[in-house]
Design a protein that fits this description.
about 130 residues; mainly alpha
Length: about 130
């Protein structure tokens, strides 16, 4: 296989194309297809597509679990709200009743930070 030499602007353009293909799932599909249909080794496929073997196995597992849905873009990060344990919420509300000054500004969404601060002040360990 001959090695090609690229100018910097050509390299940037190629990288942008690869990013778009990765985002669309095309690269992932082609990588799995090269391994399963063309029977290329995992190491060879990873070299051709400039991805690690770990990435290959993660993509393969996602495809086995989710099918083609694994190639669709999805949001990253937390999928839902953080939930408080009942005991922490009860402790924070009890402290709120004891000290009316704390009542100002405490909303259910602020209870987590407030309860952590109150637990620290009272000398209890935070889990």
């Amino acid at each position: 296989m001959a090695i090609r030499r690229y100018k910097p602007e050509q390299t940037v353009n190629l990288l942008r194309q690869i990013e778009v293909r990765i985002a669309n799932g095309e690269l992932k599909y082609e990588m799995l297809r090269a391994h399963s249909v063309e029977e290329d080794s995992v190491a060879e496929v990873c070299r051709q597509f400039a991805l690690s073997r770990e990435s290959f196995y993660q993509i393969q597992q996602a495809f086995q679990e989710l099918g083609f849905g694994a190639f669709l873009p999805r949001k990253r990060g937390r999928k839902g709200p953080v939930k408080l344990k009942d005991e922490v919420l009860e402790f924070a509300l009890a402290k709120q009743k004891e000290n009316p000054e704390l009542k100002r500004g405490i909303q259910p969404s602020h209870v987590r930070a407030t309860s952590a601060r109150l637990l620290t002040q009272s000398g209890k360990r935070i889990l």
